[in-house]
Amino acid sequence: MPQDIDQVLALEIKKEMADRYFGFRKLIEEDIQDYDNQVLASSLRLEQKIGFDLVRLYILLKDEKLIHDFIKLTGLEQLIFFDPYLTESPTIRKRVFAGQNIRGLTRSGRFKNMILDTYDKLVSDVDDYRANLMELSREQQNIADEIKVFYRKNDLGTMLDFLQGLGGTEAYKSGHMEGGLNPQAGKQLEKKMRVEPPPPAEKLLPVIPQVTPLAKIKRPLKKIIDRAYALQGDLDLKDLVRP
Fold it and tell me: Which among 17, 27, 35, 133 is least buried, having the fewest CB atoms inside 10 angstroms?
């Protein structure tokens, strides 16, 4: 009878340890999955917001030299989302401008305002992206810290040694840990089951510098706009924005 009681107690202890271990582990895995989803969502927003802002500006500026002059003004360190084909493709042009708001009484006025408004939106979208990247960086660090604490409190090798002491080799054959493990397999299992923190957001997403506010570059930007408008022929943005 005492032996039966010892076995029951050993099983309860093993189950409690396994439940705690795998419960905390699952929470960490869920945090990692949520982080991965946030990184993916941020990547999509980068393309759909900042990418489209820049493509619209590239199309309106048209000339590659003007585009490079524009990039120098913005504070961006390099061309992103740029392909010479973008400025020539009627399909892409129609797609990125469809449904955009326009303002201005003349063709030149609408052209100038579209660039200024799009640039203003770019500044805002880049600020939002940078803030989101910082938040993701903090989230990744929190997960890394969680994992350190988890393994400090739940060393699998120590747990397996303890379970072995409770009931011999059979202690490895209960609950979540069932599988006929022997003491020598503990290190291999620990290595195989180890949870690693996800990569930092900065290694998964591009780091974009802050864009110069419109008010600081409005005068030189208007000169670039005038040169770009002269290259556009009879372009009227009213035609481009129609869905």
Answer: 27
> How far is it, in rounded angstroms, from Cα 215 to Cα 235?
27
Count of Cβ atoms closer than 10 Å to residue 83 Cβ: 12
- Among 126, 104, 148, smallest CA distance to 205 is for 126
Quote the tokens at residue 205. 């997403």
Contact 114, 102 (CB under 8 A): yes
Token digits of residue 38: 């946030």
Give the SS3 label for residue 193: helix
Q: Which two tokens stand for residue 17?
A: 């340890």
The radius of gyration computed from the CA coordinates of the chain, to the nearest angstrom, equals 29
Instruction: Give CA–CA dist 119/50, Å, rounded.
Output: 10
> Which amino acid does the sequence have at 138?
R
Cβ contact 114:60 at 8 Å: yes
What is the model's pTM? 0.79
The secondary structure element, H or E, covering residue 4 is helix 2-45
Distance CA 200, CA 168 (A): 42
**Model pLDDT for residues 212-236, shown as the tens digit of each residue:** 999 999 999 999 999 999 998 888 8
